[in-house]
Design a protein that fits this description.
- The structure holds three protein chains of three kinds.
- Chain A is mainly α.
- Chain A contains ten helices and no strands.
- In chain A, about 80% of the residues lie in helices and about 0% in strands.
- In chain B, helix 2 runs parallel beside helix 6, helix 7 packs antiparallel against helix 10 and helix 7 packs parallel to helix 11.
- Chain C is about 35% helix and about 30% strand.
- In chain C, a hairpin with a 2-residue loop joins strand 9 and strand 10.
- In chain C, helix 2 crosses helix 3, helix 2 packs parallel to helix 4 and helix 8 packs across helix 9.
- Chain C starts with a strand and ends with a helix.
- Classes of the chains: A mainly alpha, B mainly alpha, C alpha/beta.
- Chains in contact: A-B, A-C, B-C.
- At the A-B interface, helix 2, helix 3, helix 4 and helix 8 of A face helix 4 and helix 8 of B.
């Protein structure tokens, strides 16, 4: 982990419009929670369904896309990454440092608001924690996946979008076999295991899910570092 | 004999160059040319092969169900208990395709000009900034309209061939086309406004999808939780104002008496408000777009 | 001292061969990499800097491979051609970050020293996005110098510089060369290279065309016969008159034109109009056939 890379990435990513969007999303979750609280009271089951749809299915992948690609994509796109690569810093360190920023933003503006939302809407502490851990797991894997995509291709956002919208929302809900390859399902398994039984519904075994989450995260980070080593900073075409 | 100065400095050869003496089209001509160019760009025509994949893929995704339904209607001889296919709800049901289309093509239309600095090239012609905005809006709106209206047309043709009641179907299809106009105007207005705020295409795509898709999911989930769970359907219906999809759906349900594709119906009396808000959002996004381009540094 | 070795190195992109079997050694002092646009200079510099792997062959620094080796950047400083930098940082923050990333003991001091060297200390507190092109170039230079590298690679550093900045940069590079550093810069302009480099390496169409002391190569080029294409109303007569004068090395009759090789071009420029006038021959067109850098270089390649 390199403090300078962290500092520059944080400044670049959160200092501009991307930062505004990120903060707005976090605030939006809280606003929605307050609104829901004032309009109705939800049972645990309904709360789980609500947050499952809003946070796990939609917010976390989009957030991961915004901060995961945003941590390195723009630099690769305009070629300024060469200034980072022409330093005696290992590529793995660079990837890890950028990941720290992406994860930090995810936790601060997506995971914590989700937990707060659960509590505001009347959920128990256990439920809030369960969904928080699930959101964190999903967010972490999404960040790694999308950062890796940004290193691999210039069309990372479109491909990531296709994955988040089409695969996660549609296919994995409809096609039983595809559930094992869905990050959302892995996160749901974790949440399900931590919450009261029957509140959430998950389809992937817990052991498998945890293995895939941890394995995916570690493998993704390592592979991103490897790809960064052979990146040829070409710049704008 | 006189000799010219030897070793002349240079020679201009006559290679047939002629100045252009003919008619020059005015501002409207330029605007129209920009419109057609942008509209073609929206569908990837005139660009590399890779940029055709998404537009045409999405066109396929939008058309395929319509073709299948039309075929079923013709072969089966009817649409069951109702006398018209669901024209107006079609766009709502396949809205994810429209979201992706707008999210990818709006930045393509405007962000690239900002990123690669071609705006000065446009503005140094007799083309005002307002003209530029109008052309781009018209192009993307036209493209999205084509995307939504073509399946409606296909459904209509299917109904005609299946000899379903002509009057009813024509009316329903007609209203649906009008709805398609509103859909395309709103989505492209929002999409272009967001895209014009950043020169980075990837960020534009992500931001547009976030606004369109996340708002829908939030509103639907809220409606689902409040409305059905607690019987507060009326209040929850008003939440439909906060997402483009539910907003448009509400207008269609009230104005054209169409079936709904959202979670909750529009509360009584809310119809005009929905329509007003729709028009405000459309008008507001266009105005904001114009303001943005007045201010943008070339 | 730091020596870059390029050995039988080629690089191709699909069907296009950008660098074609180049073997060269770049040692201490200032080396100019000269060649027309598209000759492969940037590609070669990217390979020297470890940002592009050679398709075949090796590129090494003191025996160590440059590609996929981030430690090599302790010794190398790179000033890329393209302008892209971290726009949102100020010049000072950028130089400081470079110093920190190099792991220097006192990054602040190194950064301010580097900024002083490029005369950017006054503007250092503005954001890079507000800089002019020359200022961006200078701040990139500062970031490359911050760790006092033994090897400095500059890709077209004089592009877009005004005369004052050029003098400043030339001065700076001269000092570095005199200190025994290895400095390599690329250019397609003869005069720039002439003012600065002790040695030049000429790259044409990816091939290594010439190398050595600049003055020797320059002399070779001015000694070359100059070729002209002349159209007159009596080519044959003109040819016979010209060949009798010593400044003409050879004449050849083509279709409607006369190809002339002049060995002393100053004298030839005076002789041609004079003998044409004396012989009563009207000249319609006189154009030099080999003034482009390309043909000069191709002459070199032939040699």
């Amino acid at each position: 982990m390199n403090r300078t890379v962290i500092r520059i990435t944080a400044q670049g990513m959160l200092g501009g419009r991307r930062g505004i969007l990120v903060v707005t999303l976090g605030t939006l979750v809280l606003v929605v929670a307050v609104l829901m609280r004032s309009l109705s009271t939800l049972s645990d089951r309904e709360l789980a369904e609500f947050l499952g749809a809003v946070s796990l299915t939609m917010l976390m992948p989009l957030f991961g896309l915004i901060v995961g690609t945003g941590a390195i994509g723009p630099e690769i796109d305009d070629g300024s990454v060469i200034h980072l690569l022409s330093k005696p810093v290992s590529r793995a360190t660079i990837v890890q440092s950028k990941l720290v920023v992406a994860l930090g933003a995810t936790i601060a503006f997506a995971v914590l608001p989700t937990v707060a939302a659960a509590l505001i809407m009347g959920g128990s502490a256990g439920l809030a924690l369960a969904i928080g851990v699930g959101a964190f797991a999903a967010g972490a894997v999404y960040c790694v996946l999308f950062m890796l995509l940004a290193i691999l291709t210039r069309h990372a956002v479109i491909i990531g979008l296709a994955y988040a919208l089409i695969w996660e929302s549609l296919v994995s809900s409809l096609v039983p076999g595809a559930r094992e390859i869905s990050i959302r399902q892995w996160a749901l398994s974790v949440t399900d295991a931590m919450a009261e039984p029957g509140v959430f519904t998950s389809h992937v075994g817990l052991v498998l899910a945890v293995t895939l989450i941890v394995g995916g995260f570690v493998l993704g980070t390592w592979y991103a570092g490897e790809r960064l080593r052979v990146l040829t900073p070409v710049g704008e075409e | 004999m006189s000799q010219p100065d030897a070793a002349p400095a240079g020679v201009i050869h006559d290679i047939g160059y002629r100045g252009y003496q003919g008619d020059r089209l005015g501002r409207s001509g330029i605007r129209f040319a920009l419109f057609t160019h942008s509209l073609r760009g929206v569908f990837g025509l005139g660009r590399s092969g890779r940029s055709k994949v998404i537009p045409f893929g999405l066109v396929g995704v939008m058309l395929l169900p319509a073709v299948i339904i039309a075929a079923i209607v013709i072969i089966g001889g009817g649409v069951g208990p109702v006398s018209t296919p669901a024209y107006a709800q079609y766009a709502g049901q396949l809205t994810a395709a429209t979201w992706i289309f707008v999210a990818v093509q709006a930045p393509q239309a405007v962000s690239l000009d900002m990123r690669f600095g071609t705006l000065p090239l446009y503005m140094s012609r007799p083309l005002t900034r307002g003209d530029y905005v109008v052309a781009k809006i018209a192009a993307l709106t036209g493209g999205v309209f084509l995307l939504i209206a073509t399946p409606i047309l296909i459904l209509y043709l299917g109904a005609v061939f299946a000899e379903l009641p002509l009057g009813e179907n024509s009316a329903a299809a007609g209203w649906a086309i009008l709805g398609a106009v509103l859909y395309s105007a709103m989505f492209s207005g929002i999409g272009l406004l967001i895209a014009s705020l950043t020169s980075r295409r990837g960020f534009g795509i992500a931001a547009i999808i976030t606004v369109l898709a996340l708002s829908y999911v939030i509103v639907s989930s809220m409606q689902g939780a409040i409305g059905h769970g607690m019987g507060e359907e009326r209040l929850a219906g008003w939440l439909g104002l906060f997402s483009p999809n539910t907003l448009l759906d509400g207008v269609q349900v009230w104005a054209f008496d169409a079936g709904s594709s959202s979670v909750l119906p529009v509360p009584d009396g809310a119809g005009p408000v929905f329509l007003l808000v729709t028009l405000l959002v459309i008008g507001g996004s266009y105005a904001a777009l114009a303001a943005r381009y007045r201010k943008v540094r070339l | 001292m730091a020596t870059l070795e390029v050995s039988a190195c080629s690089r191709w992109f699909g069907n296009v061969v950008a660098v074609n079997d180049v073997t060269m050694t770049i040692g201490p002092g200032i080396t100019g990499l000269l060649g027309p646009n598209g000759a492969g200079k940037s590609t070669l510099i990217h390979m020297l800097g470890g940002f592009l792997p050679p398709s075949t062959g090796t590129v090494t620094l003191d025996g160590e491979q440059v590609w996929k080796n981030h430690n090599v950047y302790r010794t190398i400083g790179l000033v890329p051609e393209r302008e892209a930098t971290y726009d949102f940082l100020t010049g000072w923050q950028f130089a400081l970050a470079s110093a920190e990333l190099h792991g220097l003991d006192n990054p602040g001091e190194a950064a301010s020293r580097a900024l002083e060297t490029v005369a950017m200390q006054d503007a250092a507190h503005r954001k890079i996005r507000d800089y002019s092109k020359g200022m961006k170039q200078r701040v990139k230079m500062a970031s490359a110098l911050v760790h006092e590298p033994a090897v400095l690679l500059l890709d077209e550093p004089f592009n877009g510089m005004d005369p004052r900045q050029r003098l400043h940069l030339i001065d700076l590079l001269r000092k570095m060369g005199a200190n025994g550093r290895t400095v390599l810069f690329s250019s397609h302009i003869l005069e720039e290279v002439e003012q600065l480099a002790n040695r030049i390496d000429v790259l044409i169409a990816g091939r290594y065309a010439a190398s050595g002391d600049f003055r020797t190569i320059r002399r070779l080029m001015t000694d070359r016969p100059h070729r002209y294409v002349v159209r007159s109303d009596d080519n044959r007569a003109l040819a016979s008159v010209l060949i009798s004068d010593g400044s003409t090395a050879g004449v050849r009759l083509g279709d409607g034109v006369l190809h002339i090789d002049a060995s002393e071009f100053l004298r030839f420029a005076e002789v041609l109009p004079r003998v044409a006038r004396e012989a009563g021959i009207r000249l319609y067109e006189v154009s030099p056939a080999d003034e482009s850098l390309e043909s000069v270089f191709s002459y070199l390649v032939e040699k």
